[in-house]
Write a structure and sequence with these properties.
The protein is an alpha/beta fold and 184 residues long. Helix content is 39%, strand content 13%.
Amino acid sequence: MTTAEIEVQFTDLGSASGTSFAVMERVLETYQRQHCQVYQRFGYKYLPVAAFKHAEVTTFPPAEAECVFESSATGGSLRSRHFVRRMAVYEASVCAAFRAVFGEGPFQIWAHLPGYAPASSLVCMMKILMRKYGTEDSQFFLGNRLPNIPEIGAPILLFGAAFGLLDLADAGPRCLPKDARIIE
């Protein structure tokens, strides 16, 4: 299967006519084994995080990447890197997965991501979702205080990493509307 064919099927995951996740997983594993030198060195399906910190894990020349996501290195170690050849494919797959779970929106999308690097994939994903499906009330917030909730508005989707959401919960009780969802 060519890269272009893989991209089309990958962005079609979750649709009624799309390829199943299990099939796509096998296709991608085979492709990685054939085209990624780092992946070829390991005899198991999943690479350790250290591989992404110490090597350029990619099936294409790293200079061709439109974007390089970096981890937040919260443990004080090297940042892991994820090379993205075409951001349009990344965005299409993020949007397809979001629509399959949440629908078209609009939503008030709140992102509580303290400590996340600006170049992290999660920050990028939140920006995409806010732009595509968010209302003007969508926002990032850092402190342990929720944004003001409009009297009437679109449902709230509160995204955050586990540690940040726990800090938010520990800061005291909060009242969210009944239709709000918290996503870790």
